[in-house]
């Protein structure tokens, strides 16, 4: 398992326009599991409506965990996405 | 290339994909199935079809309007294959044996409610997206239909649209409107003008199934509709579209300028609006106030009466946003062509002459009282005028005013603040009110002439009947004489007189109205600046005698 923490910079937080390319990105790593945690709740990053309903806003710190054969590369790619878009 | 001629009712040239509107049908079949596996397979196939449809649409929109516009549809695509929705549907099918249509509607409804319960206003709105997506899956199952949801930016074609249907449309996706039926004074046309969307009505063949999905241009000025234009026509139309945008830009230079004629006569140019959503347009177009706030739009598109609090919030929002500009709210005006299910109004042979507007309010005092309470409460937040529609007799005004006084007494006793400077006025839209305007003037602070109804009742021409054409002459001297009579009687008694019907925006009559001394013209927000331009080019002293000769 590989993980990273990230504090959201985007003024509107994680919303439907950013989650669409994010899901596309993680689908580049089939067979891997991605979760996102904020506070006590954790959901799969593929469950977009659950992620949206976590209401992740600017200033919130989230933890992303990746499990899979190629988890180093997958985590790095997703972290890169967060930095560029969120 | 196919060319059609209709009537342009809202100016501008629009181009886009032609999309057919299908009336809302929320009822889906709700049965228990025996083969649950097969039902689950049916759902998966419909879901895949919906995802594919959305992908195709997103790509089309990307070509036309860029990535930003396509993002919404891609978001819908994501929601269509959302695991939360899918899991819930699977549970409903496998555990309860519900048919796929009902399972999708129920699961979509539950998920939409979860979004609606969130605090974040942006996320709250996703509730509508979830509902839209579940309707799309249901329509892929072959049931129900996709009502208000538009598949992307489109030119919408319909037989005709009811006001409740029009208000549900996503204004951001509606590029233009074309109907097979309808009438220039009907509500579709009025709504299109308020939204600033080009519209053509009476394009009889527009619903030919082979046309759906084709590229279409509509010209809201000339009424021309062109499907699949050849390259030459296409260039010409795009040129015109560009020209109009430049003109709109030019008009912006009139912002902040007084609406005053060359010889120094002022007229107030105000806006007609349907609710808080139109306030932005009033400000952008520099409306000098609201001459007509159609409160019935608060009652449309709902399942039950809006309570006092709901109405108060809407009125307060408008009044406080426009602070020092006067806002005239018209009390409920339903009946005739505006029907609302939960009112349980009996079917009438002749609704335009039936129980409508103030007649309903006076016969259902509780309904009237709720609305007046909401209005008076909101009066503490701005400058309010209250206006009663469909007056024919003096006693009606007295009875309505008595209700206003009752409401004021109640609020005072309850210690709820309200303004004691609320103006009271009436619509003059029946020939009776125009003829009796000398006496009615003694009962009110202002008159507002509703030319649409005044024309229909004076000329005995149904405003919904597009076949009347030349018989329904909106410039008929009988109507203009009545308007002049009302203005004279109003001024004799120190009462202000406004025109809030469609005629107010008719630039060929501006000189006539100014010569009559009309104090205020209230028009859709988009018409404010063109009208101001016309006023500023007019010399009233030069046209006064011509106008009185014409009406002699």
Describe it for me?
The complex is a heterodimer of chains A (86) and B (552). Chain A is of the alpha+beta class. Chain A is built from three helices and four strands, in the order E-H-E-E-H-E-H. Chain A has helices at residues 16-26, 48-53, 71-85; strands at residues 2-7, 33-38, 41-44, 61-67. In chain A, helix 1 runs antiparallel to helix 3. Chain A is globular, with a radius of gyration of 12 Å. In chain A, 33% of the residues are buried. The model of chain A has no long low-confidence stretch (mean pLDDT 89). Chain B has 552 residues and is of the alpha/beta class. Chain B has three domains: 1-24 and 147-241, Glucose Oxidase, domain 1, CATH 3.50.30; 26-140, Enzyme I, Chain A, domain 2 (Orthogonal Bundle), CATH 1.10.274; 262-550, Alpha-Beta Barrel (TIM Barrel), CATH 3.20.20.60. Helix content of chain B is 46%, strand content 14%. Chain B has 20 helices and 16 strands. In chain B, strands 1-8-7-3-4-5-6-2 form an eight-stranded mixed β-sheet. In chain B, strands 9-10-11-12-13-14-15-16 form an eight-stranded parallel β-barrel, surrounded by five helices. In chain B, helix 1 (36-65) runs antiparallel to helix 3 (83-96). The mean pLDDT of chain B is 88. The chains are: A alpha+beta (86), B alpha/beta (552). The A-B interface holds A 12, 15-17, 19-20, 23, 44, 46-50, 52-53, 55, 57 and B 71-72, 74-75, 77-79, 82-85, 111, 114-115, 118-120, 122-123, 126, 129-130.
């Amino acid at each position: 398992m590989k993980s990273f923490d990230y504090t959201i910079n985007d003024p509107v937080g994680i919303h439907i326009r950013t989650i669409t390319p994010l899901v596309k990105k993680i689908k580049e790593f089939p067979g891997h599991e991605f979760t996102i945690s904020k506070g006590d709740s954790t959901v799969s990053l593929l469950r977009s409506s659950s992620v949206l309903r976590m209401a992740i806003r600017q200033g919130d710190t989230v933890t992303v965990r990746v499990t899979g054969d190629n988890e180093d590369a997958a985590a790095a790619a997703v972290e890169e996405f967060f930095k560029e878009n969120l | 290339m196919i060319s059609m001629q209709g009537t342009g009712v809202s100016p501008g040239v629009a181009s886009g994909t032609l999309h057919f509107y299908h009336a809302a049908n929320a009822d889906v079949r709700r049965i228990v199935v025996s083969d649950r596996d097969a039902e689950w397979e049916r759902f998966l196939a419909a879901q895949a079809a919906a995802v594919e449809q959305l992908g195709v649409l997103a790509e089309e929109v990307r070509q036309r309007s860029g990535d930003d516009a396509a993002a919404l549809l891609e978001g819908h695509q994501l929601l269509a294959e959302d695991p939360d929705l899918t899991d819930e549907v699977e549970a409903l099918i496998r555990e309860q044996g519900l048919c796929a249509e009902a399972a999708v509607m129920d699961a979509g409804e539950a998920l939409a409610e979860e979004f609606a319960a969130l605090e974040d206003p942006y996320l709250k709105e996703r509730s509508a997206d979830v509902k839209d997506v579940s309707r799309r899956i249901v329509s892929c199952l072959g049931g129900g239909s996709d009502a208000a949801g538009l598949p992307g930016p489109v030119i919408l074609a319909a037989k005709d649209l009811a006001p409740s249907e029009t208000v549900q449309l996503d204004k951001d996706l509606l590029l233009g409107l074309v109907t097979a039926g309808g009438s220039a004074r009907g509500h579709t046309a009025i709504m299109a003008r308020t939204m600033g969307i080009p519209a053509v009505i009476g394009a009889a063949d527009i619903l030919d199934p082979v046309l759906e999905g084709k590229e279409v241009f509509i010209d809201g000025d000339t009424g021309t509709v062109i499907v699949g234009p050849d390259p030459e026509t296409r260039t010409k139309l795009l040129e015109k579209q560009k020209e109009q945008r430049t003109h709109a830009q030019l008009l912006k230079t009139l912002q902040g300028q007084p609406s005053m004629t060359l010889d120094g006569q002022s007229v107030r140019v105000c806006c007609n609006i349907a609710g808080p959503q139109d306030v932005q347009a009033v400000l952008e177009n520099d409306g000098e106030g609201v001459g007509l706030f159609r409160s019935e739009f608060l009652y449309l598109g709902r399942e039950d009466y809006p309570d006092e609090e709901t109405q108060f919030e809407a009125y307060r929002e408008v009044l406080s946003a426009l602070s020092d500009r006067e806002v005239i709210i018209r009390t409920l005006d339903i009946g005739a062509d505006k029907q609302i299910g939960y009112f349980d109004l009996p079917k009438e042979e002749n609704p335009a002459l039936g129980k409508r507007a103030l007649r309903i309010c006076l016969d259902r005092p509780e309904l009237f009282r709720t609305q007046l309470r909401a209005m008076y409460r909101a009066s503490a937040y701005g400058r309010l005028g209250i206006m009663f529609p469909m007056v024919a007799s003096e006693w009606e005004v007295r009875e309505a005013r008595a209700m206003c006084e009752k409401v004021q007494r109640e609020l005072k006793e309850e210690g709820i603040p309200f303004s004691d400077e609320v103006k009271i006025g009436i619509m003059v839209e029946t020939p009776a009110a125009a003829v009796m305007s000398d006496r009615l003037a003694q009962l009110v602070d202002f008159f507002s002439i509703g030319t649409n109804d005044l024309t229909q009742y004076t000329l005995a021409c149904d405003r919904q009947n597009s076949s009347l054409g030349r018989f329904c002459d909106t410039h008929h001297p009988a109507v203009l004489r009545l308007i002049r009579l009302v203005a004279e009687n109003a001024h004799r008694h120190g009462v202000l007189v406004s025109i809030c019907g469609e005629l107010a925006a008719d630039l060929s009559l501006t000189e006539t109205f100014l010569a009559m001394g009309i104090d205020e013209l209230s028009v859709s927000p988009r018409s404010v600046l063109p009208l101001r331009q016309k006023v500023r080019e007019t010399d009233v002293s030069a046209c006064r005698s011509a106008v009185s000769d014409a009406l002699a």
